[in-house]
Design goal:
single chain; 258 residues; Cathepsin D, subunit A, domain 1; two-stranded antiparallel sheet; elongated; 9-stranded mixed β-sheet; alpha+beta
Length: 258
């Protein structure tokens, strides 16, 4: 079997350069372009370890050392946490790309019969790797950013009502500024399936769709992430159609403990 070292080196250099760019993008690092080039070059040197008779453990530690050198060369060393975070994102992005490419290779290169896979003569070539890798990484980072933006507003919420506690997932809805017009108590919205309560009061509210009456009841207290605890809160019953969410938190109640 022929191995074209120059081609393998260039391909490895391309991947390292791409991964370093993605780490900088995700962590918002301000780095000169020359540092990416030098960092990727140092990272690609590890490919030559494959031609040295080393055991798997030694090879593993050498690759770790090279990765650390590559990260420090590219992003500099400020402190241990800064470097560790850069290294972590390098490996997670690398594993995501490697996993997806491996999956595509299995799908295109093998035929499955039950639990048995047969090689069918196809494989992912260099051109496909060069074209598809940036697209895969772009979609991966975009999806991760979308999930981060979405789930950073998710909170674990405990609602106490008649001495019984209900554990739900809450979403901080910045548009929820509802308050009781009489006593100015903030209103959180709860999925109607969580608590069966026929002892409610009708509270007039104003929303984007107009004025209406909302079924509300007083609770013992509500605790958000074990940090924010409120007592003077009303719970409004409604339907909630947000993924995994049963409670819409109120912006006005997120400032402390009462």
């Amino acid at each position: 079997m022929k191995i074209y070292v120059d081609l393998v080196f260039l391909l490895n250099y391309f991947f390292d350069f791409l991964l370093l760019l993605l780490v900088a993008y995700q962590l918002k690092r301000n780095v000169k372009k020359i540092r990416y080039l030098i960092g990727a070059l140092l990272g690609s040197i590890s490919i030559f370890f494959l031609f040295i008779p080393l055991n798997s453990l030694t090879l593993f530690f050498l690759k770790i050392i090279v990765s650390i050198i590559m990260i420090i060369t590219t992003f500099g060393f400020r402190n241990f946490y800064y470097t560790l975070k850069n290294l972590f994102f390098l490996y997670t992005t690398s594993m995501a790309l490697g996993g997806i490419l491996y999956f595509l290779n299995v799908q295109f290169s093998y035929k499955q019969q039950g639990l048995v896979f047969f090689y069918k003569g196809l494989s992912i070539n260099v051109i496909f790797l060069i074209i598809s890798s940036p697209i895969i990484l772009y979609l991966y980072v975009k999806q991760m950013k979308s999930l981060k933006d979405k789930y950073q507003h998710y909170y674990r919420v405990i609602i106490s009502y008649h001495q019984k506690q209900y554990n739900v997932i809450g979403f901080l809805d910045t548009g929820n500024l509802l308050v009781d017009p009489y006593f100015k108590k903030p209103i959180i919205l709860l999925n109607e399936k969580i608590i069966n309560n026929n002892n409610y009061l009708l509270v007039p509210i104003h929303t984007a769709s107009g004025d209406s009456l909302l079924k509300c009841f007083k609770i013992d207290w509500v605790k958000v992430e074990g940090k924010i605890k409120k007592r003077d809160v009303l719970v409004g019953i409604t339907k909630i159609n947000i993924d995994g969410v049963d409670c819409l938190l109120n912006t006005k109640m997120m400032g402390g403990t009462i």
